Amino acid sequence: MPGTICHLNLARGFRGGERQTELLIRGLAQRGVRQMLVARTGQPLIDRLAGTDGLSISSAAGNALAALRHGGGATLLHAHEAHGAHSAFLRHGFSRQPYVLTRRVSNLPGGDFFTRGVYRKAAVVACVAASVARVLEAYDPDIDTAVIHSALSELKADPKTVAELRSRYAGKFLVGHVGALDNKTKGQVYIIRAARKIRELYPDIHILLIGGGSDEKWLKQEASDLDNLSFTGFVDDVGSYLSVLDMFILPSNIEGIGGILLDAMQFGLPVVASRVGGLGEIVEDGENGILIRPRSPGNLVEAIGRLYNSAGLRAAMGRKGEQFVSGFTPDKMADRYLKLYENVMGGSLT
User: Fold this and answer.
1) Could you tell me the residue range of the domain that residue 133 belongs to?
2) How far is CA 307 from CA 76, 95, 171, 207, 290, in A?
3) pLDDT digit string (tens) for 198-217?
4) CA 130 centroid distance within chain
5) Which residues does residue 250 pair with via DSSP β-bridges, in sequence order?
6) Residue 54 zone, left/alpha/beta (φ > 0; ψ -120 to 50; rest)
7) What does pTM read for this prediction?
8) Is residue 323 located within the same domain as residue 333?
9) From the CB of residue 344, how many other CB atoms can be counted at a distance below 10 Å?
């Protein structure tokens, strides 16, 4: 009899990991897989997946112990973030339910006994980039890892929103960044510092920071003297914004795979990204984008200027990016996870 996958995602808000969770659940539903979702009460993932075929949804407080009340009937648990991973580990201790984890970041996990147990007891840890897998293998060679890259989101653009945005920024060369305003990981303060120099060198460039987050108030204060940079706040219609940009930048300090780069490339955008984590697995320097040093506003200004000054280079990189992302569809990601589940369970799920 086919089994049931229980997804655990207890994160707040809706960031890249939650978008990937949604894409996977929808892809598996299309393949007839029975699924459960345990998500944090009141968070967007619940509403976004409501009504999905073959999916039952439970809400829980955002901690591992609260989530233990759910998922008991599942054949296999899949944890998508830290609280979910802790809950899967505890349930495995009580019921021996097997579980898999998805690891989305490239930093080392904690060295405490509990955290090591979470990773060691997982049937397999799916890493979103080969660089993430290498970090885990250095952390503990006994951890079983697999590489399953994140998928592009296949975002759509709304013609009315696109027309409004083009009117609002008429005459501007638009450089955009999409991400949670979390400077520790995303490095938006370096975009702000770069914007001061860009204002002098390229007066028609306007930078959009698309997203909201915990550092929004502070970053706005840092940028209060700039008229060439705008904050949009959280945007659900990301595709409309990508469709009006001339260039995309992701100067992160820490990154697993930077899935938003795939979306930017699908829209034909040349990209600039830090040489950290798995970003080099997406960006081939000089081919479909430019890689820069992290925490280097000067390097960021140079890369933006190089692309700004060459329409031909922008077009060539955009074409190569579009070709590259054809291998990163949600369908392909769902197929890879389904194969991983069936390998763990030793049988078919459909």
Assistant:
1) 4-151+329-345
2) 47, 56, 17, 14, 9
3) 999 999 999 999 999 999 99
4) 15
5) 273
6) left
7) 0.93
8) no
9) 18
